[in-house]
Structure formats: C-alpha cells, structure tokens
Write a structure and sequence with these properties.
Radius of gyration: 33 Å
Structural class: alpha+beta
Order of helices and strands: HHEHEEHEEHEEHEHEHEHHHHHHH
Shape: elongated
Distance between the termini: 26 Å
Oligomer: single chain
Number of domains: 2
Number of helices: 15
Helix content: 55-70%
Length: 402
C-alpha cells in the first residue's frame, strides 16, 4: 500500500505533472490562508477590545460599589464598614458621596457627576487610572479635580474659581439654587470620553456639605484581590448586609458597553466566517479540477491494481494536506501581524470613541484551536466529494483507445 500511495502521489502531484495543477493548488492554499488570516484577526481584535475594556474599567473604577435603597445613602457607615471588613477578599474600602450637580464658570454651565472621596482613598483607588494633564488631584476641601471634557466644556483652567450649583427640587424664590465657590486643582483624562466629559472629583467633606448629607455617605467603593470574582463576592456581601443594601459590580455598572461589544461579535464573526467558508469551497473546486485534469493518470493507477478506496483516501489526504498548509500559513501570518501591531501600533484609532488609540489584537490559544480543528473538518468535508468522484472513475472507458 505504501508503494502504491507513493506511486500515486508521484503520478498525480509531482511538479512535472503540469503547471495548471500546481497553479490551482497554489490558489487553493492562498485562499485558505487569506480566509484563516481574516477570521483569526477578526476574533483577535474582538478579544483584544474586550480584554482592554475590562482592564480599563477594572483599573478605572471600584470593583464593587455598596450602597442603600434608602435614597442611596448609608446612615450608619461605620457599622457597615465593620461588616465589610470581615470579608477577607476585599482589599480596600473607601467611603464616597456622589450625586449630579452643575458646574458654572464665567463662560459656560455644564451638568456633571460630582464624586467626593478622601484624598488618601482617591490616591489608591481612582488616581492610578487617571492621567493628570495639568495641576494635581484635589487635596483641600475647597478644591475639585476636573475631567478633560468638563474643563473644555466650561473653558476652565487650573487655578480658576468656579461655582458648584446644587438643585433640590424645583428652583423658586423659596427654594433657590445652592452655589458653592470651588477652585480647580487639576484636569485629568481617563482615555474614555464618556467619563472625561462628566466626572468631577472633590473632597468627601465638600460633597457631604453641598449635598447636605451630614455624616452620611452614598456608599463604599470596594477593591478586591481578584476582580474576576466580583459576582461571587457581591453575593457574599449581600448575605452579610441583607436588605436594604445592594451592591453593583463593575460589569453591571458598565453593562451597556459589554452588551454593545457582545452584539457586535456574532455578526462580525459570521461575515468573516463566510469569507473563510468561500476558501474551503475554493478547495473543493480545486480538487475537482485536479481530478478532471488527471483522469487519465487515475485510470492507469486503477488499471495496475490500486483500489477505488485507496484512490478516495489519496484525495481525502490531499485535501487535508492542502487545508493544513493553508491553515498553518494563515495562523502564522495572523500571529506575526498581531506581534507587529502590539509592539509598534501601526494601526491607530480614535481614543475618544474606542477608549484606546491603537487596535488591540489578542489571538488566544482557544481561538487557534477552534480555527485549526474547524478548518481541518471543513477541509475533509470539502475533499470528500472530489475524492468520491475520483474513486468512481472507470479505467476501461478512459483507456479503451490507448
């Protein structure tokens, strides 16, 4: 059998067997490679965006925010903190006060989300994810730290005095707007436009004062040792604190972003999967053309004793071989392009829209495995019909006039 297979491959696929056969085999491999590259890079870019987004968000905000259904205020924060400290998985606990407000400069007025924290807590939880463009984070009670978008909207600079405006109910003669002068200590950027355009940070005492909270707080920001366990830890905290407290994880707080990403994944993968499928259809047509071009040689092999089953195995093997070569080349090129992009960042995108300035690519081992196995399966299916057709060739009819 080994001799027959060797003879068959020499007869059918040696270089001297014709430029046409070699050319269409090269086209098949090229098509498979391009399809594999397209599918691999698509999956890699989607994975890269998701991983980068998770890293941004888990570094940008607390992993869990614990608050109360009672007007989002904790009336006995010290007792709650003592219970939270019993949860060993929690690394840091930081009180905060947060509410909507308005910020007015001499030029413009803008709606904001004002969040008050202790300076030492802000330095640990929030500051690492923010790049100070000018000035510094707040230190004193009368200072605020602006997002780049907010500063641009009201045309404020470091050192300017602006007004915090707090509205309680419907403004009237008997319910005037509350105004508090504050100084801009610094301007930051997170690289995420949605947050830069809305967030303003201040001292916890200032937030409690302007929101008339006395010693109450909005809740606690919690940092975990393992951010991926947020759902499990949030459920554990809920069991400890019970009603009326509830706990928002980083994934729940930014669920709109993740839903958007999930809705994009399936149609994009389907489109590029169809491109890859076209390459396997091309493989099928390639093998059919090879058989039509080599009917005479196949008939001779059958005449000297090679069975139809072995002819079929030969073409199945050849289809799998072509598929394997195409997949290996495609994955190799895709991984090379990933390395080039991640090291040199040749493809740029708008950071204001996508949160990052370079296209991230992460082709994971599971993606490589899925593409390889599905590619080999499709190669086998694509080769089955041509192999069956080759095994049905009748040497008597083809060699009758030789």
């Amino acid at each position: 059998m080994q001799f027959e297979l060797f003879l068959a491959r020499r007869s059918l696929f040696r270089r001297q067997s014709g430029r046409f056969v070699g050319f269409i085999r090269l086209l098949a491999i090229t098509g498979l490679s391009i399809g594999t590259i397209a599918l691999s890079l698509t999956a890699g870019i989607l994975n890269g965006f998701e991983k980068n987004l998770i890293e941004k968000i888990t570094g940008f905000d607390a992993h869990i925010r614990s608050t109360s259904l009672n007007h989002y205020r904790l009336k006995t924060p010290e007792k709650i903190r003592e219970k939270l400290e019993t949860v060993s998985e929690i690394q840091s606990i930081a009180p905060y006060a947060s509410q909507e407000a308005m910020l007015k400069s001499q030029f413009e007025t803008e709606g904001i989300l004002l969040e008050g924290m202790l300076p030492e807590d802000f330095a640990v939880i929030q500051a690492p994810s923010k790049t100070t463009l000018t000035g510094r984070p707040f230190q004193n009670i009368d200072e605020i730290y602006l997002g780049k978008g907010v500063a641009k909207s009201i045309r404020a600079e470091v050192g300017d005095t602006v007004q915090l405006i707090i509205m309680k109910g419907t403004p009237s003669i008997f319910n005037p707007l509350q105004r508090y002068p504050v100084r801009v200590s610094g301007i930051f950027t997170t690289g995420m436009m949605e947050y830069d355009a809305n967030l303003v940070y201040c001292h916890l005492s200032l937030a409690q004062k302007v929101f008339q909270m006395d010693d109450q707080i909005s809740g606690f920001q919690l940092i975990l040792e393992r951010p991926e366990q947020t759902d499990k830890i949030a459920a554990k905290i809920q069991d400890i604190l019970g009603y009326p407290y509830f706990h928002i994880t980083w994934r729940e707080q930014h669920q709109t972003l993740f839903r958007w990403l999930e809705t994009q994944k399936l149609p994009i993968l389907i489109v590029f999967g169809l491109i890859a499928l076209v390459a396997f259809v091309n493989l099928l047509s390639t093998l059919v053309m090879i058989i039509l071009a080599k009917e005479h040689e196949i008939a001779i092999l059958q005449a000297i004793g090679m069975s139809s089953r072995r002819i079929q195995i030969l073409f199945l093997t050849d289809g799998l071989l072509l598929g394997t070569i195409g997949i290996i080349i495609g994955l190799s090129v895709a991984l090379l392009l990933q390395w080039i992009q991640m090291h040199f960042g040749l493809i740029h995108i708008s950071a204001d829209v996508y949160f990052i300035d370079n296209v991230p690519i992460l082709i994971s081992p599971i993606v490589i495995l899925i593409i390889s196995l599905s590619g080999l399966l499709l190669s086998g299916l694509a080769a089955w019909y041509p192999a069956r057709k080759a095994s049905k060739i009748r040497p008597v009819e083809l060699l009758r006039y030789e």
